[in-house]
């Protein structure tokens, strides 16, 4: 990809706020536009089924304490992330999507250890990031880097590009001092910027160019994992495809894995062969691109996808109408009992209030957390989970049933799963 068009310093066109529905989901105005320009981009990233995990997250929790202003007594907790498990394969990308406030950024900040988690584990190359102190973390901080949403506020306006990109090299002593400048110039070249512009300041660059500077800074330490939190959502749509192309290029060249946080489902579909859907601190559905975009089984995922015109038809079984969720997202301070989505779910029944639906594997690379999982219009009448949980259809204890322990929410996928279509055990 040639970034020539971006090399000259041109002010960005003002970025229009995307239209959103009452629930704050990005809708028609943004996603199809990315689809239009994505024709200039590389092909969608493919899933490598043989890739080993670089990061394995298990039962990760982050509860922020709520304190009184005077005595600093803890009077409650914000359950921002509440027991999520997933795997990011080496050199691949896992997308994290969901409405505002569902815990996406907190998850990213836990992985980069900006926060110490309340509970759970994050295994990175055999070490548990969740339990480490600062000194143990220091060498690993090189390996996990972050790209931020806002290319304007994430770069210090008083530092030159050379200082910004060179600082990680100096702090971590990765190249001799004399070689820092030439390494910075190499990195600028990799991200498609003019290497001679190392002595310019961020305000001399456009938004897309600044995001390239942020990417060069993140690449400086040759990380194995990047957490990209809405990396293109502040950019003009015509620049989005160029930056996504660049991320695909560096991913391929350096074998970097991505946790890619975004609200734009069309961008995620292009960049991420696997996607996790979050709602109020939980993962409600996770799977490969095909399972999520063409075979979503969770009512929340179906509603999200129905807001994206180009994927709507597949997600809604050929129907064109948009599924509008009513009601507000409940507070993570006092989430609903059982299924957290039940206050807005059109399918909710008694069992949904009594029991949290476990995240169950229903395909080779597909898991869903719902008592009534099914393609749109094909949700079962009886709760699929009742027998497994040892309860009756209303969620009351059933003495004749024997709950199974197979529901333990392990990260990653097993070779066997519950095949909903055939009501049998599926096998890889
Ligand atoms: N430092 C904090 N202290 C207290 N609550 C927090 C803190 N950081 C985040 N939260 C709360 O945790 C929840 C999850 O926030 P988070 O920023 O992770 O959401 P998000 O999915 O990234 O949303 P968005 O799409 O708007 O960026 C929200 O209710 C938020 O208010
Ligand atoms: S468990 Fe119940 S409330 Fe939750 S998504 Fe499924 S049907 Fe809806
Ligand atoms: Mg966020």
Automatic annotation (TrEMBL):
Keyword match ATP-binding: yes
Q: Which SUPFAM superfamilies match?
A: P-loop containing nucleoside triphosphate hydrolases
ABC transporter domain segment(s): 66-305
The domain of life is Bacteria
Keywords linked to the UniProt accession: ATP-binding, Nucleotide-binding, Transport
Is Membrane one of the keywords? no
The record's listing under PROSITE patterns reads:
ABC_TRANSPORTER_1, ABC_TRANSPORTER_2
What GO molecular function annotations does the UniProt record carry, in alphabetical order? ATP binding
Gene3D superfamilies per the record?
P-loop containing nucleotide triphosphate hydrolases
| Residue stretches of biased makeup (Polar residues) | 399-413
Q: Where is the composition biased (Basic and acidic residues)?
A: 1-10
Ranges where the record places region Disordered? 1-23, 392-413
InterPro entries named among the record's database cross-references: AAA+_ATPase, ABC_transp_ATP-bind, ABC_transporter-like_ATP-bd, ABC_transporter-like_CS, Oligopep_ABC_C, P-loop_NTPase
Q: Which Pfam families match?
A: ABC_tran, oligo_HPY
- Stated family: Belongs to the ABC transporter superfamily.
Spell out the NCBIfam families in the cross-references. Answer: oligo_HPY (TIGR01727), PRK11308.1 (NF008453)
Q: Which PANTHER family match?
A: D,D-DIPEPTIDE TRANSPORT ATP-BINDING PROTEIN DDPF-RELATED (PTHR43776:SF7), TRANSPORT ATP-BINDING PROTEIN (PTHR43776)
Name of the protein this chain belongs to: Dipeptide ABC transporter ATP-binding protein
Q: What is the lineage of its organism?
A: Bacteria, Bacillati, Actinomycetota, Actinomycetes, Propionibacteriales
């Amino acid at each position: 990809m040639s970034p020539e068009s971006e090399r000259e310093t041109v002010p960005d066109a003002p970025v229009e706020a995307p239209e959103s529905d009452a629930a704050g989901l990005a809708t028609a105005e943004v996603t199809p536009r990315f689809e239009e320009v994505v024709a200039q981009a590389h092909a969608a990233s493919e899933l490598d089924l043989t890739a080993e995990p670089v990061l394995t997250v298990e039962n990760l929790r982050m509860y922020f304490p709520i304190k009184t202003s005077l005595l600093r007594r803890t009077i409650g907790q914000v359950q921002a992330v509440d027991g999520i498990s997933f795997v990011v394969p080496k050199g691949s990308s896992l997308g994290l999507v969901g409405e505002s406030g569902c815990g996406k950024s907190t998850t990213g900040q836990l992985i980069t250890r900006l926060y110490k988690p309340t509970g759970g584990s994050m295994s990175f190359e055999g070490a548990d990031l969740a339990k480490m102190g600062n000194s143990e973390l220091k060498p690993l901080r090189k390996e996990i880097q972050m790209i931020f949403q806002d290319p304007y506020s994430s770069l210090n306006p008083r530092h030159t590009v050379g200082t910004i990109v060179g600082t990680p090299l100096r702090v971590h002593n990765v190249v001799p001092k004399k070689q820092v400048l030439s390494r910075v110039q190499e990195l600028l070249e990799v991200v498609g910027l003019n290497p001679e512009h190392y002595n310019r300041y961020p305000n001399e660059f456009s938004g897309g160019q600044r995001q390239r500077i942020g990417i060069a800074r993140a690449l400086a330490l040759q990380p194995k994992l990047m957490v990209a939190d809405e990396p293109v959502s502040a950019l003009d749509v015509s620049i989005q495809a160029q930056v996504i192309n660049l991320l695909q290029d560096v991913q391929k060249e350096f074998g970097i894995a991505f946790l890619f946080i975004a609200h734009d489902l069309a961008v995620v579909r292009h960049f991420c062969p696997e996607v996790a859907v979050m709602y109020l601190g939980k993962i409600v559905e996770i799977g490969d691109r095909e399972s999520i975009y063409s075979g979503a089984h969770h009512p929340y995922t179906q509603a999200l996808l129905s807001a994206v015109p180009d994927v709507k038809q597949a997600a809604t079984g050929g129907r064109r109408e948009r599924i509008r969720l009513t009601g507000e997202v409940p507070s993570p301070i006092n989430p609903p009992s059982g299924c957290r989505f039940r206050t807005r779910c059109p399918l909710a029944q008694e069992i949904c209030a009594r029991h949290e639906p476990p995240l169950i594997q229903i395909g080779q690379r597909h898991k869903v957390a719902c008592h009534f999982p099914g393609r749109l219009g094909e949700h079962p009448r009886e709760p699929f989970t009742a027998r497994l949980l040892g309860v009756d259809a209303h969620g009351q204890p059933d003495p004749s049933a024997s709950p199974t322990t197979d529901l333990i929410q392990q990260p990653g996928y097993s070779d066997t799963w519950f095949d909903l279509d055939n009501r049998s055990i599926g096998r890889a």
